[in-house]
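Quick one, tokens below. Sequence please?
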């Protein structure tokens, strides 16, 4: 769904864009969710070595990012659906960072 949104209604990052074009597109890349992975156990925190190690342990436990990993368990999902599931406001200013913020980081 494409819709025109005035640049003045966007986030601070807009001021970093060159102001030479009439229209800009925000692209949210396709995502999938594996309903067998308990995201509520995942920590999005990544400021300390312990936090990074906890994330890596979670990835290993569920085979995320390993050479043997595949997309078989992934179900395509839209950002607006994730926002609805997790109670995140979904509007023109939505970014994937809102998902991380929902889980405390």
């Amino acid at each position: 769904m494409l819709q025109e949104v005035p640049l003045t209604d966007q986030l601070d990052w807009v001021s970093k864009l060159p102001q030479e074009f009439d229209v800009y597109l925000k692209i949210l890349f396709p995502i999938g969710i594996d309903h067998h992975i308990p995201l509520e156990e995942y920590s999005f925190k990544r400021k300390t070595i312990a936090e990074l190690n906890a994330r890596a342990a979670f990835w290993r436990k569920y085979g995320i990012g390993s050479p043997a990993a595949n997309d078989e368990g992934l179900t395509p999902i839209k950002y607006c659906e994730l926002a609805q599931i997790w109670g995140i406001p979904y509007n023109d200013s939505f970014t994937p960072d809102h998902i991380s913020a929902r889980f405390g980081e």
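DSSP finds three helices and two strands in the chain. The longest helix spans residues 49-62.
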